[in-house]
User: Which sequence fits this backbone?
């Protein structure tokens, strides 16, 4: 079973990358983890003329292949202006273009971290809407890390045991449901 794991933020010090690392650790040994950095699949803003004249950019083709090869998805994303960061929406839009829809039938677990009091929950809700349109089965439970600036210790672990437990619990659900969907 393969889980494709990526953050919706690009910066090196991203709290969502930290959260992703915690979740990947919770999954370790129980599935093959394909850890993707969106910087490794660069693509321009979606442009129908580029698509019509040149086909999908190489980054988009690679991203589609990685999604297609996975059974489940783990996405940790911030919210920008109460919604999906443009970078993440853009790569999803490119990946949704034909041939084929690599998202269809995948299982996804969504997480978000933000320095504010809402833990990127509005971004995760917006992401839920978009991925649902693409046929992804999204787990009802998510992980929202509020006050992300204080949520991680120096080694990257979650300080609050309740947050750590929620990551463990939801990752176990991702494995269970992905296995059920695959078999
Ligand atoms: C364009 C932009 C819009 C943002 N909008 C929100 C927002 O609506 N809600 C929020 O909690 N944080 C917002 N933030 C702050 C981000 O949550 C914060 O920068 C966070 O650390 C980004 O995630 P990262 O640490 O994974 O890079 C915004 C940041 C940017 C750059």
Assistant:
């Amino acid at each position: 079973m393969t889980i494709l794991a990526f953050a919706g933020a690009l910066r090196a010090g991203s709290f969502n990358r930290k959260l992703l690392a915690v979740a990947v650790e919770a999954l370790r040994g129980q599935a093959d983890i394909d850890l993707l950095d969106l910087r490794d699949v660069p693509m321009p803003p979606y442009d129908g003329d580029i698509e019509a004249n040149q086909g999908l950019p190489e980054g988009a083709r690679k991203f589609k292949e990685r999604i297609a090869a996975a059974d489940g998805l783990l996405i940790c994303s911030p919210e920008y202006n109460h919604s999906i960061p443009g970078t993440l929406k853009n790569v999803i839009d490119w990946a949704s273009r034909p041939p084929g829809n690599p998202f269809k039938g995948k299982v996804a677990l969504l997480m978000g971290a933000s320095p504010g009091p809402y833990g990127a929950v509005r971004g995760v809700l917006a992401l839920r809407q978009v991925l649902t349109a693409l046929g992804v089965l999204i787990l009802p439970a998510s992980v929202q890390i509020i006050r992300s600036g204080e949520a991680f210790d120096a080694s990257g672990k979650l300080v609050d045991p309740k947050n750590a437990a929620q990551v463990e619990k939801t990752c176990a659900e991702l494995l269970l449901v992905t296995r059920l969907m695959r078999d």
